[in-house]
Amino acid sequence: MRLILDTHAFLWWIVDSPQLSSRVRDVMRNPANELFLSVASAWEIAIKVNLGRLRLPDRPDRFIPGQLMKNAIEPLPIEMSHALYVSRLQAIHRDPFDRIIVAQSILEKMPVVTRDTDIAKYKVKTLW
Prior knowledge:
It contains 7 helices and 5 strands, in the order βααβααβααβαβ. It is of the alpha/beta class. Strands 3-2-1-4-5 form a 5-stranded parallel sheet. Helix 7 (about 115-120) links the parallel strand 4 and strand 5.
């Protein structure tokens, strides 16, 4: 199964947070599953670090690629179709990063690993 990690799921995975559900841990550990991190999440992390709202042990441009490689997570680029699809989404979620992840989930037919109940209100499959 191909899965998009929401930003918090990625961050909690790399620090082995107890906030991750056992189901999510099992799915993410399963080598048969392909894990993806949206470029939107990398952008969100970089912005939060720059604003002082998130601390990482290294600069985002080093830390994120290193964690992707270490954890066998592939980057998911933002395509023009993803960006334009956002205009078709209901205004359920105000977070632009989450809205692009929803668009990617719909167009790429990939479930989102997330605890965010607003994402689950869209017609996307979520896993938690």
